[in-house]
């Protein structure tokens, strides 16, 4: 079977990637990571998003396979970032925001590949992007191409890492969500996904829940405004 494993956090980007994978593969597995993130509420969104996608899109329902959440809290223990502790979001001396968790995506893909090896899934899908993003070096296309090669050499395998959002901005991400699933998918993203770094879900906006001030909320809001205006 032509199968894929999606890195699925419960956020906007990974939900769009899940829809992308469901359009293209026969079997789609999902994996999430609990790394002690400040916005751990995203993990509690995952099951409801999967359920609503299955209910809204019967053509995809039979493709949805296993889901696992992997405990990576040891990453929190070696990271002092605004994404893994209560701290004001700012920029470090190296120009990177202090929400950058060093090695996070590298670790995620290695664990995903290990699971995909057992599942027999040759395709790994992630929502990384270097168009509208916070400057994280492990989101860059060059990084992920090198990682794909390293994983394949280390596992003697032929995994393919897919990053369907790599070269599009957030407005385009909203548009392809509409293209893939129309208003039902757009509404799932607004009502059920979580992107806010502060874990804020008491404030509902046109674009979804969030603090409306952190970098993740600013990107999501600006993308939504670009989506509805054009």
Characterise this structure.
By secondary structure, the chain is an alpha/beta fold. It has one domain: HUPs (Rossmann fold, 3-Layer(aba) Sandwich). It has eight helices and seven strands. The chain has helices at about 10-25, 40-55, 60, 75, 105-120, 140-155, 170-190, 215-230; strands at about 5, 25-35, 65-70, 125, 160, 205, 210. The strands form two sheets. A five-stranded parallel sheet has the order 3-2-1-4-5, sandwiched between helices. A two-stranded antiparallel ribbon has the order 6-7. Strand 1 (about 5), helix 1 (about 10-25) and strand 2 form a beta-alpha-beta unit. Helix 2 packs across helix 7 (about 170-190) and helix 5 packs across helix 6. The longest helix is centred in the last third of the chain and has 23 residues, at about 170-190. The radius of gyration is 17 Å and the shape is globular. The model has no long low-confidence stretch (mean pLDDT about 90).
